[in-house]
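DATA SHEET
Item: assembly model
Revision: 1
Owner: S.N.
Input lines:
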Amino acid sequence: MVEFYLQLNPVVQAVLKGLAVILIIFPIGGVCSMAERKVSAWIQGRPGPNRAIVPWVAWIPLVGTFLQRLGLFHVMADGGKMLFKEDALPGHVNKFYFVLAPIVAMIPALTTVTAVPFGAYLDSAGAVVPLVLANVDIGLLAVFAVSSLGVYSLILAGWASNSKYPFLGGVRASAQLISYELSMTLSVIPVFLWVNAPGMEPTMGLGRVVEFQSQPGFWGGAWFLFIMPVSAFIFLTSLFAETNRQPFDMPESEADLVGGFHTEYGAFKWGLFFVAEYAHMLIGSGVFTLLFLGGWNPLPWIPLATFVGWLSSILPIAGNPIFVGVLSITIFLTKVLAMIFFFMWVRWTLPRFRYDQVMEIGWKKLLPLAIANLLAYAVGIALLQS
Amino acid sequence: MAIVPLERKPLTFAERTYIPQIVAGLKTTWKHLVRPKQTLEYPEQRPAIPAGYRGVPTLVKDPHGREKCVSCQLCEFVCPPKAIRITPGAIALDDPTGHVEKAPQEFEIDMLRCIYCGMCQEVCPEEAIFLQNQFSMTGYTREEMVNRKARLYELGGTLPDTHFKWDKKKAAEDHGNALH
């Protein structure tokens, strides 16, 4: 099996790997939409969706009931509904761009995943090798560059809908995403200044950041969340704004803009916007986890290699690269899903900011803070590393 | 009342960063997340119906199984939306309850008209019609929404009766005035 895979053409290998990752992201996106409904319900003191069940699963005692109570089959019901619903195309829209917008939303959402490592394994020499679709040096730069293309879909959707609320939503989206991208990018520069110490091969790759957080010693093993809390805070806040999550969901604020940029959308096209939003959240949480939460390291000051070393002293199979790969992916996904939960938790905690407040926070608070943070760390790192 | 000028303290730095408020808010929502659910899972769990609830109007029988309605039609006349339609009928004289003389041949309550006011229950001299606990009435057709006599007795069942008015009447008739 492994030999057969390795003898394939590298292009075929890459396509297979890409498909595998997309096949993981899509269901997680679907489950996230379910989790959103469940978490909302729990916070509001309701049990949430818990009715849908496939008959032959209902026959399994306990497990069937548990899955039903968890609302797992509502994912399928929702997806099926979205697929088979009439896909109405309003008469007043610009049809070409109207159809193009959800496609444009999906492409960057699924492309960014290529540069995001999601796990690691130990090679025969005991070195940690990150699992990533394309281990390129531009790493985070690629993520930022491609993910900001996502705003075009919102602008296109808002404009092509040819009606006032989607248009306002599109305008808000463009203004908000541009404002927060600045602080977001500035907030991660200290991390890369710190990671690219003199004498090392310079890289923007996220794998290196995790590697840096898994070094021995107090400063080496500390996650960047502890070393650079301000950066982490700015990045997280901007992430909320970039993914249009509450309290920054200006582009679709349903109270004042009906549905914002997707007012005129329905059925599958609307579903695509939704999946793209969740994919953005997933990638954003992934990047945050890699940068500030130690990536696939289980706990601060306990890197993956040490953890696997402990495990293999109990369980001989633990040294197997496949086992380590699965373990690291599990740890990473757990952290990412915890982040997603945090997104949902915040959604039901904070009210939406007013539009002028969003702009004020972005330009007058976060941006100066990000610049000051960058300068402080630049001076500090220069002094430390010289 | 005198005007009291309130002193508005300027926000502290911590307050202006929003962070303490956000943390407090997250704590509050977390408490809500873990506490027991507040809702009732309706078809399986039913709400407790308080005493005196005015649900669907029904006809009841007395503990001996005699239908109490004597088709006096007072409820039909008092019903504000004219939801009740009674066809009076006679009870055969050789029947054990023949002395009651009248019983409804047909009793219809149109639940599409009924406003659950309870005037029928209030006006009934025989305590035969009661608004009981049932609160959900559904149907696919207009016909289904009309409760006929059999259905009304099925919904109403038997309620305890302390008077047994007609039994006393019969006893009085049998003994003449000697009893009193």
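QC remark: Strands of chain A lie at 119-122, 128-131.
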